[in-house]
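If I may wish for something, please sit down with the protein I am sending here and say whether tokens and residues agree:
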Amino acid sequence: MRTPVHVYRWPNESEAYRTARNTLLAAEIDLRRQTETVAALRRALPPGGPLTDDYVFETGPTDLTIDEPVRQIRLGDLLDGTHDTLVVYGFMFPPEGHPCPMCTAFLDALSGNAGHIGERVVLAIAAKAPLVRLRRWAAIRQWRFPHLLSSGQNDFNRDYHAESTDGRQWPMVNVFRRSLDGLHHVWASEMFLAPPDPNQHPRHVDALWPLWNVLDLTPAGRGEDMPMASYRSALAVLEST
């Protein structure tokens, strides 16, 4: 039996369970160490490419009851002087078509932490969909993101790989940081672009996604299908307006 790393036991557990659990626990501890190593490497990245196109987006509040006209905002102006770091999620919501159900589930969770995230960095959601449709979907999902951006009139999605060369939308996270010499790209969820192992999801935003992390703790795991009931109900509301 693997040497235990703690003395605690659960009611009525068997020796077979404890042996297997100790093996798993050792693997979990190794994963924690690797996670810390990867995070340190990420923090140590040198500045990436400087921003050469100050992309102009359409924006408006998530709350549809706020009577605020659509306005334009440049990417660099999202950093208001309080924070030096900008995180932009490329939401797969095409100009014509439906919002991505997996992106929607991811953003449902991210919205709940948007206020806390906003204490450290600026968080923005960018989609190619028209702003009125993007705002409507955000209102149906009760999102509270500080910045909803329609990128329909610029090349941001294409340039930062949230859109393929043939116009398909991709779920890319991009991080930018302002320094004395301007705004630089510093990180993107490039595992989405790297071929995954056979029968494996790219897992490029898994660390940010409670849905799959919780299901991974269960005997059945993630299952074969995306949970869709909430999405279908919301989509019916969107298409009825």
In short: The CA atoms of residues 38 and 214 lie 22 Å apart. The helical segments are 15-43, 101-112, 114-117, 131-140, 156-159, 210-215, 229-239. The two ends are 62 Å apart (CA to CA).
